[in-house]
What does this fold into?
Amino acid sequence: ILNVEQSPQSLHVQEGDSTNFTCSFPSSNFYALHWYRWETAKSPEALFVMTLNGDEKKKGRISATLNTKEGYSYLYIKGSQPEDSATYLCAFITGNQFYFGTGTSLTVIP
Amino acid sequence: KAGVTQTPRYLIKTRGQQVTLSCSPISGHRSVSWYQQTPGQGLQFLFEYFSETQRNKGNFPGRFSGRQFSNSRSEMNVSTLELGDSALYLCASSRRTASSYNEQFFGPGTRLTVL
It folds into this structure.
């Protein structure tokens, strides 16, 4: 069984703070890495699809980087807002299998 | 553009029964994946169907099965239900091709409770 680990498990930050989380995955047989945001009572929503080592993606205040050689991806949120409160999931895709981490739960305090 | 729909949204069954869940993907998406989420666990991959063929399968017992129809709609069946099958079942569709893994669009899920 393949391990995809996310840290921290949960995080509370003040509005306006910047924050980042980590997704760790095996460095071999890499196909792609996805990031999703999952708000309570909603469906997971795709943030980024990352396929190449060194990829950097940005969407508004959220950005992500990818290092396939060492097996990690970082998600950054600049100037957190209450609406950023959600669980952030990463999914490692290899050999036609999808492996999700357990997520980082972010709470932004107004 | 309509999103991924799942029916039913909530379901209560008893041990030993069987259940069928349905998923209609976004129009044009040929890939449908199924996931199980239980408390404290991440999303566990069940299987993926692509153009009516099961392309990938996670580590679940044979009681979990699925199929995909020519219109890309998919069904998931769980036979001989156990208490541990109580979970949120999510379906996701994507435009993925045979060689790429595009982002997945998730449905609202079916909450299954087994008594």
